[in-house]
Amino acid sequence: MTFTSAFLVDLAAAGLAVVLIGGAAAIPVRARPLLIAGLGALLLRAVAGLFLADAGWTFAARSLLIDLPLSVIPVLVALAGTWVGSDRLRRNLTWTAAGACALAAIDPLLLPGLVTL
Questions:
Q1: What are the CA-CA distances from residue 105 to residues 28, 47, 84, 109 (Å)?
Q2: What's the pLDDT at 112?
Q3: DSSP string, 38-105
């Protein structure tokens, strides 16, 4: 896998996670399967991040050590909240997870380009 394809897979997986987890927030009846699918997209993002780190990208550590925990932990908490808690708590946890995934998805786009390094 080349650097460019790994970066595109990383961005696509981040976007897919935002869409799936946002869908879980919008459709509470289907929250559990959508959150699990969102975790699968985040796993794909982790694999792409490992390829980026192997290719020598300077900011791959930031993607793996900051962005993934920023998105995975709220999704796991929201998934646990689908089994326990009130409907309002589930909704709040799911929207929080969607917001965290959106923030983690745009973070690689905010990094300086290779030309400025």
A1: 22, 15, 28, 8
A2: 64
A3: HHHHHHHHHHHHHHHHHTT-TTHHHIIIIIHHHHHHHHHHHHHHTTSS-HHHHHHHHHHHHHHHHHHH
CB count within 10 Å of CB 19 equals: 17
Let me know: does 70 contact 18? Beta carbons within 8 Å.
Answer: no
By CB atoms closer than 10 A (0-12, 13-18, 19+), residue 87 is exposed
Per-residue pLDDT averaged across 29-47, rounded? Answer: 90
Contact 95, 33 (CB under 8 A): no
Q: What is the pLDDT of residue 115?
A: 53
pLDDT score for 17: 92
